[in-house]
Amino acid sequence: MELSLSIPALLFPAISLTMLAYNARYLAIAALIRSLHRQYEENASETIRLQVEKLRKRLTIIKNMQAVAILSFLLAVTTMLLLYLELSFWANIVFGTGLIALMVSLILSLIEVQLSTKALSIQLQSIEKK
């Protein structure tokens, strides 16, 4: 298969939408951390501490998700530049690397969703105990 300029360009909307979704998750977690901080100052409970631990892990994962997605975007742009310069061998390698980076970003997103579910379980256990 011959790589053309339009193929890496197809990734632009996908990566952009992925970045928007990641940013929305980051903003939601930031708001939750602020809320939990206020609650923790009023009532230093173990449940809140456990939630904060999960949120710290999730923030780290989201930061990495965003970094790898940005890398994927940069590699797609680099692919287009290499194709423009008629360096198709290198363009194929860079494009493949960009696809792998996008896959890593999506895998990190899956892991973050799993952690989110665990954090919700902690909250539900707290409610069930009452």
Describe the structure.
The chain is mostly helical and 130 residues long. The chain has 4 helices and no strands. The chain has helices at 6-9, 11-42, 46-84, 88-129. α2 (11-42) packs antiparallel against α3 (46-84). The longest helix has 42 residues, at 88-129. It is elongated. The relative contact order is 0.15. The mean pLDDT is 88.
Please give the structural blueprint:
Blueprint: H1 6-9, H2 11-42, H3 46-84, H4 88-129
Main pleated-sheet profile = none
Kindly provide the radius of gyration, computed on alpha-carbon positions and rounded to a whole number of angstroms: 20 Å
Summing up helix and strand content along with how strands pair, one would put the structural category as mainly alpha
Based on DSSP secondary structure assignment, what is the total number of beta strands? 0
Distance between the termini: 61 Å
Number of helices: 4
Mean pLDDT, all residues:
88
Q: What is the beta-strand fraction?
A: under 5%
In the predicted model, the low-confidence regions spanning at least 5 consecutive residues are none
Question: What's the helix-strand series?
Answer: HHHH
Helix content: over 70%
Global geometry: elongated
